[in-house]
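Model it.
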Amino acid sequence: MDKYGWKDMYYDAYGAIVDKSTARFFSVLGRNNSNGTSNDPWNNSYMTQIGNNILGIGYFPQIATMPTNPPGFQFIVGHGINRTVIDVLNTSNQTSGRYMSICDATIQRVVGIGSVASYYKRCELKESAVSSWVAMGNATNKIKYNCIYHKAATWMYYIYQSTFVDPAGFALSPVLNYAYSQSSLFVRGSVIITQADMINISNTYMAFDRVAFRIGTETEATLLTGNTADELRQNFVDRCTAAGITNIPAYTEYGGANVPAGRWVFSNNSVAGDYDVIEGGEIDSFAKTRGIYFGYSNQTVKPIVIASDGTAAASFNADSPKESIAISDNNITLDADTTVRTEGYIDSNIIWLGGLRKLNMLNILHNLPVDSGVAVDSTFAFGHKLDKIDGVNESLNQPFDGITVAVPVQMSTTATPEAIVFCKGMFAGQNTFAAKVGDTYYNNWVGRDNYADGSGKPLTDRLFVHNDQKYYWDGSKMIEANTSIEPDTMYIVRSDDNNEATVTYKGTTYSSSLVTRNNVFMGVSGVESFTPSSNAVILPVRDVINYQTVQLRIVESIPSDKITSGSLSSGYWYFVAPNSIGDTSGTVTYNGKTYPCLSSFLATDTTTFTLKGACHLRRCWAQDFDFNAENIDEDFWKDKQKPYYFHLNPDDCRCMKANNSPAANEMRTDSDGNYIASGHPDFYSEFTGVNGIKSPAFDITGTFMQVRIPITTLNAM
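Modeled.
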């Protein structure tokens, strides 16, 4: 298993394939005194050598480039925006003759930029990083290409093909020397327009999505009015004229005749999230007509709709299966107190891909914490708040003289227990915990806790103390727990209640909260002590999947029955299919709601429906699909890709296929029956041959799919 999540191929800022055999690897899960290989990466933040340096997925508090001889170029390659996050990029120690390039990372702050030449590509620069660049002034040896800038107020030197998110009173002119504004994309925020702008740079292609403008003599920035790109442009031109800007160059090209500001495109709904251009939207259509693209990336996306309307096709909507989730138009919210532990999820409805398609990318753009991907050891290392165990009895066996064994009885219906003890072989030969009341031992939940509140928290979630020694339950016996931090061992901070827990180690505070992304640390030699909060529990890491995944299920076909009458099956998804793809006007009314063609719904106890127009229903699959329990479409799903959820690395839509054959109808499964796609822990190990067996990877294809978003807080156990 590749716990670090390395990819099989990397490209540097110049587009060259990185030679991984000579690269140095850095991971938040690495060691301080490692050899820097992919199997034993560095944990520290100092890069001293020239050549390729690969940053893993995760949060790096600091990356510092350090000069050594000989002079040369340091290539730093991350895993992508929002996947490799650098809090501080420090290049203050760079000297003449040492050069740096960095790509595929989110950079929150930049310090000590210095005079060394550097090249940034496919990077996201947060507000503080942008401010550092602006303060540099004429940084003519700093090239920034295909980057995203947050809250910028002006151009920066040597800037190419860029996306500006929430620009703050951005002055389009004067264009700084070497600033290349061609095909820039502005998203939200505000932009200042002057007569000089219209004369000097209106010949440059630029795109604006939901941007407020302060034009000419206007005193405040306001949004344009209108719905279509043409209406928004006309309002822009009218406002220019009213605000004293009379010279508005017009352009005749690509079917447009004398169009004022004709090389600029305005839209209200062409960008998903902060920076991804929507395929087929007004900005994308404008760009494709001219053979260009806008902003940092030439890739466009097809967003999945988020709607309060439960009948919306291909969407997350108000009727979606969910837990601890609230939904409104364009907004999914965790419906819970984020200061307490919460595990929620939401499923989309059925998404038709328009025929058999290859999946190129599937990502969830969000500002919510998601599953950290860290799989911890089931054993506790140590904790602060402990549950007292009154006795450890390794010899109590049946039959018991004068002792009654009570089979499942809720402890809340009994007297207060006199003691909680561990007993070996007490009930049906099993090792278990029991609560003693008089002469009766209550064995209420084998392998679970025996507390009066009936909370039923797994025993493996707690530590116990007996004779001042700490123990944990490994499923069959009590094991003595460690009490100090061991060097070169990864630990993760967890909470033993519903509140945030913290641990301070080596002067740094680590938190159970996923929001901080600072919940894993490594023990170092000579530093064994730590300071926990009252609810902190620390666990050693057994294995780590150091990348975040999305969950989906995708199939190439569904049962072919065209359902026009009869009863629906509760718990199954149904897709509203047109009789002809050229006529999607038909509808289905079910449970009081009318669903258009290409939409879908989950049937409940209501079994009747009404068709209108040229359409029919197709049964898809059960919400809780289990092939072994399937009794309606069992024959159909034999020897086919089944609608099981699996994990996918958003940037890598590949999988393993059964028998390693491209002709296989189904993905290969692991020993537990889980499909092996790029988000599976074994995928990259098998693909690269790390485990001694090199297996081929195949594109993921399908016709119908469903997406699940899991949302957790406070690093839930």
